[in-house]
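Hi R.,

Here's the input for the 4'-deoxy-4'-aminopyridoxal-5'-phosphate complex you asked about:
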Amino acid sequence: MSRIVYVNGRFWPARKAAIAVEDRGYQFADGVYEVCEVRGGRLVDERRHLARLARSLGELGIALPMSMAALSLVMHETVRRNRVSDGIVYVQVTRGVSRRDFPFPAPAVKPSLVVLARSSDRTRLEAMAAKGIAVVTMPDIRWGRVDIKSIALLPNVLAKQAAREAGAWEAWLVDEDGRVTEGASSNAWIVSADGTLITRPLGSDILPGVTRAVVMEIAKARGLALAERPFTVAEAYAAREAFITSASQIVLPVTRIDGRPIGDGAPGPIAAALRRAYHDHAEFS
Ligand code: PMP
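And here is the predicted structure with 4'-deoxy-4'-aminopyridoxal-5'-phosphate in place:
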């Protein structure tokens, strides 16, 4: 847990930090967020995360709470004050505080801004990557604009919980045509029998993952075959490798899908190589 939290203009000890009960984030999930990896005390791919934040806010007509330069300073300062070396920084912006009513407040109110930072156990994360994770598939019941990184995550929460109850770490969400959209908190990838990396193309049905974009650049730079197309659950079962990408997990091998071993049931060499190469390509700030 973040010990020092930034809320609306100042840093607070976590137990003193508070948000108004009529914050539209609390009442309507009317807000967006970002998660950026922290490594060696520096932010990873901050520029792309802030660009996606600006886009998410723009799509919902929420103003930036402060300039991007100021927000960057607040993120770095939150990391510093919490002495996070390896971990994440979390940024949440909501439409602000107003009497509960569905339409946007008119005139507009000031957006609320929260920034947290917390450490993660890198040894534990590396052990998880070395072992690989299990995923289970389930129907994607989310709304039609999951390209916006909205804080309305109830379907993702339910999917993740169902995965945990099934002994898996992640849920792969499946559209009505039997094709995988993405993970509950990650993008989904497979490596086909002929060695092609396959991941769903960008659209309103997946989050444009920052890690996904960087991994695509690495794959291109290494001359790996890459196809941005939807893949079915049956294709995933038959894949040589599978993995997920996200800012907090980087590249995490998937070794079982719905209880079936993928490839030889151990993390694949392509996923492992992409994970190792990631931080040589990522931007640090
Ligand atoms: N899809 C979903 C639904 C997610 O929650 C996340 C993680 N925020 C991702 C994909 C991966 O995005 P990124 O690589 O930018 O963390």
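One thing worth noting: The chain has a mean pLDDT of 97.

Cheers,
M.
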